[in-house]
Amino acid sequence: MILGQSFRRIVLLFVIVSLGTIISCKQSASTKAMNPSGFKIMRGVNLSHWLSQDFGWEPKYEYIQEKDIQFIESIGYDHVRIPIDEHEMWDENGKQIQEAFNHLTSCLDWCNKYNLRAVVDLHTIRSHHFNAENEGGSNTLWTDAEAQKNFINLWIQLSEVLHTYPNNMVAYELLNEAVAPEHDDWNKLVNKAIAAVREKEPERVLVIGPNMWQIAPNLQYLKLPENDKNIILSFHTYTPLAFTHYTANWTPVGHYKGPVHYPGQIITDDDYEKYVDVADTAMVDLLSDARENFNKERLIDVFRSGIEFAKVKNLQLYCGEFGCLPTVERKDRMQYYSDLISGLEENNIAWCNWEYKGDFGIYHFDSEQLKSLEPDDELIKTLLKYTRSK
Fold first, then answer.
1. Annotated catalytic residue within 73, 177, 201, 355
2. Burial call 95-113: b when 16+ CB within 10 Å, e when fewer
3. CATH code of the domain made up of 38-242+294-384
C-alpha cells in the first residue's frame, strides 16, 4: 500500500512537471525578465516594410492588420519589433502624419489584446540611414547639431504618444544600426536621448545597440548609464553575408554569382577563384569570411563577446535582427536558421527574426510580383518548433 502511494506520487509529480514544461515551452527563457519593469521577451518577428522601408509591395496600411498579430501570437512568438521611419511618421515640416500614428497605436492595441510585447524601433531618420553608404547617400546626424536635436525631439514626441502603454508591454529602440564615424559620437548622442526619455518615462525599457551596424563585437565600446537596469542590449547578425544576402542587389555582396553552401565553406576556393572579381574591392571586403568553415559554433563565435559583455553589465541580450534570403538552397537555409536559433536560445539570448512578410519573411515570397504568399510552414517550424494546423 505504501509502495502504491509512492508510485502515485511519482506519477503525479511527473504529470505536473510535464504540464509545466508544456506551458512554459512557448515563452521559454522569457519567463525571467532581466529588467525591473518586467518587459519579457524571447522570440519575436519584425513587422518590416510597413511603417518603415515601404517599397509599395502591398497597400501600406493593409500590410499589417489585427489578423496578422493574432496569427503571430498563435504560432508561438511573444513579441514583435515595429520599425518606423521618420519620413513615414512625420512630413517634411515635422508634422505628425496622423494616419501613420493611428496605425502604430492600433498595432500596439492589438498586441495588448493578444498578449504580445512590442519594441517600437526608430529605424531610419532623415539625417541617418544605416545603408546610406551602399545607396549613394550620406548621414548628417553626426555633424549637424540641429539634426541631433531633431532626433531627440522625435523621441520626445513618441513618448508623448506612447507613454500610456504599460512598461511591461512596450519598449523603445532608440535608433536602428547607428553608423557613426567614432563610437563616442554614438555614445554621446544616445545618452542624450536616454536622458530625454527618462525625464518623462523613468521605467520604460530601452533597447540599445552598439555603433557600426549594431554588430555584437562593438558592444564593448557602448557606454550607458551605470544604474539603469531598464535597458536591453541589442545586436544584429547576418554573418556570413555571402550566404544570408546571396544575390542581394542592395549590397556589393550581391555581385557574386557563384554558388554558396552552408554548413561548411560558404564559397569554395575553386568557386572564389572562378567567380570573384578581385578588382571589386567592395565585394571582396564583404566576402572576407566566405572561405571560412561555418557551423553552429562558428555562428555563436560571431556574438560570443556580446554574451560576455551582457553578463558583466547584468543586462538582457537581444538579437533584434537576423535572416537569410530564400535565394540559397532551401536545405542549407533551414540548417542555418536551425543552428542560429539553437545557438541563441542555448545562450538565453532573446531574438527577433527579419522578418514577418517580405523577401526574408516567414511567408513564401513571389520575387517577380513582389508579394507575400502563404505561410512557409517549414520555416515556421524551424524557427518556433511549431507545426501549424492547415
1. 177
2. eeeeebbebbeebbebbbe
3. 3.20.20.80
